[in-house]
Amino acid sequence: MKILHIIHKPQNRGAETFTCQLSHHLLKLGHEVKIVAIYEGCANLPYSPTIENLMASTSKKVIDIPAWKKLAKIVKNFNPDIVQANSGDTLKYAVLSKIFFRWKIPIVSRNASEVGRYLNSFFQIRLNKFLYKNVDWIISVSQESKKDILNHFPFLATKIEIIPVGLEKNVDIDFIQLYPLEKKHLVHVGGFSFEKNHFGLLNIFELVIKEEPQVHLHLIGDGPLKMQFIKEVQNRGLEGEITFYGFVSQPLPYIKSANVLVLPSIIEGLPGVLLEAMYCKTPVIAYNVGGISEVINSKTGTIVEKGKELLFAQGIIKIMTDPDQDQIAYAHKMVNSNFMNDQLALSFVNSYQKIIGLK
């Protein structure tokens, strides 16, 4: 088969990273793959073939005929069996290019988050309804993501399935020394966006260090809210208690070396960083949003209802004081059994074959 993947832009976020990892496995399985980005980006994504770019205008997100035309030309020249839209504006560009320039390839939309959280106006609801009316299949990342999209667009019920996010196999993950040496270490991996709730994490961290001063917070990632967050850290006098790393291409050693991975996000699909922590045998604690409860339960980690900052802080302290080794081992086994990309790629291939058979 020939698969054309569309990504929002070259950026170090989960949707783009997973698309690149999936594409590598599809290539290994003997399929032809091309990745196209809508917008410019500076990230060095983990994909060795060239990623083409539509160079779309960020000021013409509603009507961008030149970019639609360029995508249509790529579709015509590559002649894929499947076009997969991977989050961001990808579905909009795929559908409008297909309608305007009349190409016939089936469109698959990968639903990697909770769509309803982004439908803030009548126009957005109507536009997304129109777009989803013109897709052939939805691959949702979790049961909750599926439930969310069907709550808003129930007509999708007959053309949706679930394939989770996955991990690459890493035989050897280095242990690195986190500083200060005398402290225990919390790590958070994620871009500084409102979904990741860094300001809520700061509240939680303050509650933790009031009870356990010998704790340090490590933040991996960049993003639009980073400078605002740094100013808030300075306002609270916490500069010495938090280390910022920026983007890290290989965060697994930091995750493996920490005492706890924390994820108080307010919007998620199925975050790969939780699976990475389980793979590294690092205890996890997260808010119960999106598909998180599908991987975190009493057997695999600690889950807290969204907004319960005191309970989250207490959970962190309990994990640091008495980590549950049976829980850690069970989580590690679960990830290895159910969430590895080489196996998930086969699920995507099965879906593509099914969709082609429907046409």
TrEMBL record:
Q: Where is the Glycosyl transferase family domain?
A: 177-326
SUPFAM superfamilies, from UniProt?
UDP-Glycosyltransferase/glycogen phosphorylase (SSF53756)
Does the record's keyword annotation contain Transferase? yes
One Pfam family name is Glyco_transf_4
Molecular function GO terms recorded = glycosyltransferase activity
Gene3D superfamilies, per database record: Glycogen Phosphorylase B (3.40.50.2000)
User: What are the entry keywords?
Assistant: Transferase
Q: Which residues form the Glycosyltransferase subfamily 4-like N-terminal domain?
A: 14-167
Its protein name is: Glycosyltransferase
Organism of provenance? Antarcticibacterium arcticum
